[in-house]
Design goal:
The protein is α+β, with helices and mostly antiparallel strands. It has a single domain (about 5-50, about 85-160), classed as Lysozyme, CATH 1.10.530. It has helices at about 5-25, 25-40, 90-100, 105-115, 120-130, 135-145, 145-160, and strands at about 60-70, 75-85. The chain has a two-stranded antiparallel sheet with strand order 1-2. Helix 1 crosses helix 2 (about 25-40).
Amino acid sequence: MDENLNRRLGEVAQIAVRIEAETSVPARLLIAQWAVESKWGAKPVGTSNYFGIKRSTRHTKFCTVMTREVIAGHERHLRLEFADYDSLDDSCHDYAWLISHGDPYRAAWDRYRQTRDFAALVDGVASVYATDPHYAALLKQIATQSNVGAAIHSAQEATARA
């Protein structure tokens, strides 16, 4: 793994661990979606949208980009408006808000709060979040990678020492 990727993963893990403590949104879910949506932090949408979050009324900053969507099994390229943020931290906080408060994710989030079933949360989020039918499997794969676990563990240790 290259040095830049390790640095980016460490940075997002620090934020993800803090957000999990604040909101209960699992750090490994946040990191997995960050990895998929931004190519491990290398390619955010706009300035700092690391999760591919589309623009909504709560967003004051946005950008318009060409994106690939899978609709009814067919790949389409569309020009869509996406939220934009001032920082990785802002992007991560909005993502956590979306998962824990957004109407499309309410059922999956409520179920997770009762059961703490991570796989069911991933399935529930992925079914709404992405148009790719393999998205949930990819998130689960990334969430269980040793580098992700190690980054979370290091962030938790750093937080405990602080």
